[in-house]
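Write out the 3D structure for:
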Amino acid sequence: MSAQALLKNISTESSAHESGLLMTPYGPVSRTCDEFWTAKQRQLHSLHYSNSYRASFKPELPDYFIRKLTNPGDRVGDPFGGRGTTLLQASILGRKGVSNDVNPLSERLAYPKVNPVSIQEIQDRLEEIDFNAPVDLSKEEDMSMFYHEQTYKELINLRNYLKNNRDNVDRFIEMTALSRLHGHSNGFFSAYSFPQISIPKVNQEKINRTRAADPDYREVKPRILKKAKTSLKSGDVERIRRWGKYQKLTTGDSRDLQEWASESVNLVVTSPPFLNQVDYVQDTWIESWFCGIPREEVEGKIVQTPDLEKWAQFISDTLSELHRVVVAGGYVAMEVGEVRYQGKMLNLDEIVVNLTASKDYNLGQFKVVEVLVQSQQFTKLANCFKVANNKLGTNTNRIVLMEKI
């Protein structure tokens, strides 16, 4: 099926008033625009905010669907796990979780959240790590545009330690360090930079010149401890840790979830890449460097394409795999947005709905229950990019709720 066929009979302009019926090839589907969860920031468990990740959704989104569509003990999955938001919220609500991502960085971010440790354990471990061992920087990658020389030596010592030490305390320290690698305040290890995006070296050099400032010394250990305290301030560590043994993390393609058993998941809450809106490889290159994840291990495996037909086939193949792993009568809540395509704004929820009704794609696999549109206000990061609400970027959460047939 061509992109034009997918676009047939659907609207291509976003509207501020979208409640009503969405016409599809197999009949009308209810589409409701409302505030289904709060637009306020940082309202749920503090572990959710222990690190940032490009294009991630708020924890209120999976919280809404998990509470509405599952019971305690049910299994909740996310094939595009990202920073582990769905997995953590499933654990907090007493559900079993399974999270997958093609990028191995996801597992580094998500595992420590469902296996948290105490501040005392973190503090004791940080005291055991030698941050001041001699380092030959001539053998290391040049990161002088981001870090003061002493800060960089401390980071290299921490990275070297973490290569061979992988218990839950070490992994929580690693996850916390990843959250501090670059940002816009003194709490980060780097010179002034972007908090969510690993910008190219040449861009950081330009920022340094514009600000007429070289990277200053940022001691690593106290910044890790301070951020860890913030991440754990909501408490409940023991209960989350008890549920951690029921949580599973896999690394692989969403179209082939080999380690997910058939008919084992009651609910999927997920958000796939939105065409080519985000470069998940470039935007996390510093985090991947710190973790020792080679670029070639990720590049080419993440589907980032401007081609609507290729994107639609990717989503269709993912839905087919989800049809295998979801129980009969189970649900998939797939969050997408709107993108600029061929000069117009395209609502991707309408594309997903049409996939489920096409014999060339997913006919007979899922019934669309409804489409929910959550309007949102941009956060501090969007303001950094000078993106105005409802003008550029993705302005709404658009969730297609499907039931397995």
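Residues 11-16, 378-394 have pLDDT under 50 and may be disordered.
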